[in-house]
């Protein structure tokens, strides 16, 4: 079969067949009387073998080795091809993500495209200072797509950069909430924590709904951040968790401040006071099973700004506590309440 016929039937161009011949991949078995290449059935089968191996990503050099070396084993080469393909897919996926983010920024011209690319690169820089400047710059005329901000916020370990990213997300409104909600379900505890911290700074009704969900979740750290944020928003569902924080000594000052703010709502003061008093002890103060001295001292401090007789009676009892530090704290707090 002449080269033109082979090209038509195999789909491999005559030019490529000549290239295969020059490389020694497929040498025609014979020549016609006029000197033209003639391919046998075995030659054509080899051509199809070459094309099959090329479809796997092998180079022509690797194809020749595979077909000509009787000791060749494909496993190592296939493993290498798998690795190369994965790397190529990762690189292409990263490029696709970057292109989508540039498109989401709706650039008006190439200058805008270049600015978005520069900001995206800066968000992934090794320098914390550069990442922070990129976050602070993201709310400019050409902003970073919110998806990139969320990704950066959920992975950022530097507290200053993280704060800048949360600020940028808060300025972007509720566009990133759906992505941050996914962060709340991450298997990584640090990601869940960063997600709730970011949501807490978005002053939006949908953010409040997400924080309510987080308050009922299994992650105690997430619940605590959600409770502090909800307390600042006047959501009384946060009260039990805030009281737990006071007792446990976890962000207890912030938790007490949130309880104080919530106590200003109609009908909330008595409920909060009862919750705090209920954690002091079953029975007499200082009895076995009661809250320890450190917890009683924190509870006394938390009761300081809770109005009403329930808080006052509890503080009066604490002023006679067996632990001197607790008694002094309660006495001091009572003095402040009397001056008001």
TrEMBL record:
Assigned keywords, A-Z: DNA-binding
Keyword Nucleotidyltransferase among UniProt keywords: no
InterPro entries: ARM-like, ARM-type_fold, DNA-bd_dom_put_sf, MerR-type_HTH_dom, MerR_fam, PBS_lyase_HEAT
Annotated HTH merR-type domain residues: 1-69
Any Pfam family hit: MerR_1
Regions that span the bilayer: none
Record carries keyword DNA-binding: yes
PANTHER family: HTH MERR-TYPE DOMAIN-CONTAINING PROTEIN (PTHR30204:SF93), REDOX-CYCLING DRUG-SENSING TRANSCRIPTIONAL ACTIVATOR SOXR (PTHR30204)
UniProt name for this protein: HEAT repeat domain-containing protein
Organism: Nonomuraea spiralis
